[in-house]
Amino acid sequence: MNIKNILLVLATIISTTLSTQVLRIDNYQYPNCFGDSPLISKQNFDKKSNFGDSSSSEICDPNNIFGGSYASLNNCILFNGYYTTFQADNDKVIKTTFSDNQCTQGNEINQITSITGECVNDSPTYPVQYSIVDINDIDPWHYKSIVSISFGGDCNGNWQDSFIQSYHISIDQCINLNASSSLLATCNSTTISQALSTSNTCSDTEIVTTPVGTLCGNGDDQINLYNLCNLFG
Questions:
Q1: CB neighbours of 203 closer than 8 A, spacing ≥ 6?
Q2: pLDDT in the model for residue 188
Q3: Over 80: is that where the pLDDT of 209 sits?
Q4: Contacts for 60-64 with beta carbons within 8 Å, 24 or more apart?
Q5: Collapsing DSSP states into helix, strand and coil, what is residue 215?
Q6: Cα–Cα distances in Å, from 112 out to 72, 83, 94, 120?
Q7: What is the mean pLDDT of residues 68-90?
Q8: Which of 16, 46, 48, 192 is deepest in the core (most CB within 10 A)?
């Protein structure tokens, strides 16, 4: 084996060793999986859409996706208002919520096991679909979306080195979160705005704004935020 081939093998081994898997969560507009829902038959599923394999006869319709998130596995993270851990077991995702911020064993609130690639209804709001991907597959430049990435460590470092979680939401689109609330996200070069409404028409909204750019955390357990406004992808 020549030097070139040896270096190629070593590069492959190093790349495989350093590879980190994360959970991909695709969000779909309400209603849920068991009612008048955004489902399509398995036979009509587009295998090239990267929504994962599904053993279910029905899956979420990729035409109704409005955003999503990525989450680190086997870590205690604040997710949708609850301290949560995600674990992967072959084609299963185990989501456990806790009553404390350390995700201490014995303080579990709820645990749900889901199958990757299936339409999952594990919250009172919109359905989701799970898949396991490599951290290098995370694309922060989602077309016409706001993106927020949280990470630890050096605020000026590479967010992939200490990745915690991220989320992205389509902009300029009224999104139905559940039967009585909706969300409209907008942004420009300096500011991200998220207008939460108590109706499903994005009216009578409460607006929350955050600046575009990097927000550095404080303390030993600092969490940094990297906020993006992607108007063109």
A1: 197
A2: 95
A3: yes
A4: 60/26, 60/28, 60/33, 60/119, 60/127, 60/128, 60/129, 61/28, 63/38, 64/28, 64/29, 64/38
A5: strand
A6: 17, 14, 6, 10
A7: 94
A8: 192
Structural tokens at position 226 = 């990297």
Q: Do 165 and 72 meet the contact criterion of CB atoms below 8 Å apart?
A: yes
> How far apart are alpha carbons 50 and 73 in whole angstroms?
20
Instruction: Write the CB contacts of 85 (distance below 8 Å, at least 6 apart in sequence).
Output: 74, 75, 76, 77, 95, 96, 98, 103
What pLDDT score was predicted for residue 45?
36
> How many H-runs (helices) and E-runs (strands) does the chain carry?
1, 17
- Among all chains, which residue has been given the structure tokens 């300029």? 172
Taking the C-alpha atoms of residue 12 and residue 140, their distance in angstroms, rounded to an integer, is 25
- Biggest alpha carbon–alpha carbon distance for the chain: 69
The 10s digit of each residue's pLDDT in 117-157 is 888 887 667 889 999 999 998 988 888 999 999 999 889 88
Structure tokens at 205: 């909204």
